[in-house]
Amino acid sequence: MALADKQLGDARSVYSSSALGGATESFSGWEPKKLWRSRDGVSEECAWTEGFDTRTDGRSLVAADLDGDGDVDLLLLNRNAPRLQLFRNDGVSGEAVRLRFAPASGTRDGANVKLRLEGHADEVLMNRGFASSVPPELTRGLGVKQEAAVEVTWRSGTTQRFVVKAGQTSTLHEATGQVTATPFAPRAPRAETKFPATLESLGLPRTGKPTLVTLFLAGCEPCRKEAPALNRLAKGKAYEVVGLDVANTDEDAARIAKALGFEFAARAVPGWAADALSTNGRLDFPTTLLFSAAGALERVVTDVTPLQ
């Protein structure tokens, strides 16, 4: 049973009947969660890739660095079981800074600041949130940079400039124009990766170049339309291309791949991996997984256009 289906069954088994005719789910319940990441100016949905594909009946979400290691974790409060879900951010990342603010007035209620960090403008409200609240702070990645220039316009109208260093929480003080800093906590050991986080988890070798793993099944017309783009990539030198079919045997996978027009190696997806694929409630076809040369999953493509 897929994880999402199990979560759904567990939650419904203890769900209290509502006043709406004994309904066992809310108006917005049981929908796959969404998580967006900005890449090259384009926002991509990445909940499945990042392990945030729960289908529980969520009610509020807190985004904060709960373990103090410099990246933002997610805490989800659900209407029913499981009541709380913690999604710890343990991915590989570059340098980051966290900013906190101390207005000269000494009170943070209702205060806010406007700031510019490395050319990007933000506004931070000291009290914010609707169904849930988030800390009055800002966490931003710096890539490989070790420090950043910050320009802050306080609610009083005063504008100040600070320099903050990567790898620490910096509190900016309006009254003194000074910065006090605390280093981030050491990162916890990275959790064991699960499919499809690495090529190794699929039993596929690293070849020293990016690998495209396309998922397909018999009779998939969108997969057939994707075949020419994948074949061109397979014949080039930039990418390795492999097909994984929802089939019983490798022989069946090879036969189905040939019928769809694929001109590259194909095999059956392992049963346990196919189960993991459905944890977001459904699997779109075609879906292509892009792995880096180091064998780590970088991107999920569900449209042939980026491949073309």
Give a description of the structure:
With 308 residues, the protein is an alpha+beta fold. Strands 16-15-14-17-18 form a five-stranded mixed sheet. Strands 9-6-12-13 form a four-stranded mixed sheet, with no helix packed on it. The chain has a four-stranded antiparallel sheet with strand order 8-7-10-11, with no helix packed on it. The longest helix has 15 residues, at 221-235. It has helices at residues 3-13, 221-235, 250-260, 271-277, 304-307, and strands at residues 36-39, 42-45, 58-64, 73-78, 84-87, 95-102, 112-117, 120-125, 137-143, 147-153, 159-165, 168-173, 179-183, 211-216, 240-245, 266-268, 287-291, 297-301.
